[in-house]
Amino acid sequence: MWAVGALNKQIIRDFGPIWGVSASVDMAPSLDRVTPGKWKIALVDNIVIDGLSAFHGWVGTMPYALVEYSKTWTISLSHECLEMLADPFGQRLVPGQSIEDPQKRVEYLVEVCDPCQSDQFAYRVDGVLMSDFYTPNYFDPVFSPGVRYSFNTGNSDGADALQASSIPRPRNVPKGGYLTWHDPSTGKWSQYDNMGATPKIREIPPPAGVLARKAIDRFTRSRERMFWKKRHAKLPADFDAFDRSFFNDSVGNAKELIKKLCRKRGGMRVV
Ligand SMILES: [Zn+2]
Question: What is the pTM of this model?
C-alpha cells in the first residue's frame, strides 16, 4: 500500500540514519495474518477513547500501536511508528536543562514526534504526508547555528514540506506540540503543552510500568478533534485487559477487545 511504501522510505532515508535504527514495515489484511513476533500497528476506524487518535505502548517485549483512520491518518501512522522505533518501551530518557528552570536538570522522555506533531510540519514522502520528528540534537545543551533540531527543515532532499518545522533551538516546542519530562529530584512528571490557545505546563500522573505510556498518551489529543473532544480522556475499564490480550496468541480475544475499543465501519487493517 502507498502509505506503507512511504513509511518505509521515511524510515530508511530520513529517520534511520539520524536515529541509528533500521526497520521495515509490511501490511497485513487483519491481525491474525500478522507473522508472530512482528510489532503491530492496527489501523482502526475509530478509537473509542475521547481525545485519542493514536497511541503506542507495549506488552511484555512487544511494542504495538493503534492508529485511528482520519484525513491525516498517515501522519499519525508515521508518528507512532517512529516513536516505537526510537523508544519501543516508553522508557528512554535524556537528561537536560529544564525548560521551566534553566538551573535545574530533568530527564526528557524520548517521544520524537510530540513537539513537532502538528500537521503543518508534516512533509510528503512520495506524495504521502509523514510526521516531522526531532533529531538527537534536540536535547543539546546549547544552540548551534546550522544544527538540525528536527528533520523537516523545508529543504531536505525529497521532502515536499507543507511548512518547515519551527524547532529553531534545543527543547523548543512549537505550536501544536508538547514535551514530557521527569524531575528526578521530586519524582514528578510534567508536560509542556502548546496545543491550546496559550502554552501551559502541568503535572501529569506518575507513570508506572506499563501504564507509563498511557499516562502520557491520555493527554495527547487528536489533531483533528482537539477542539471539540474532551481534553482529558477517560480510559475504559477494560483498557488494560486490551493491552494484556492484544499480543497473546488468542487472536479472537484481541479482536473482541479491539471491537470494544474501536467503532468499526469497515475492515481493520494492520500494517
Ligand atoms: Zn507521540
Answer: 0.81
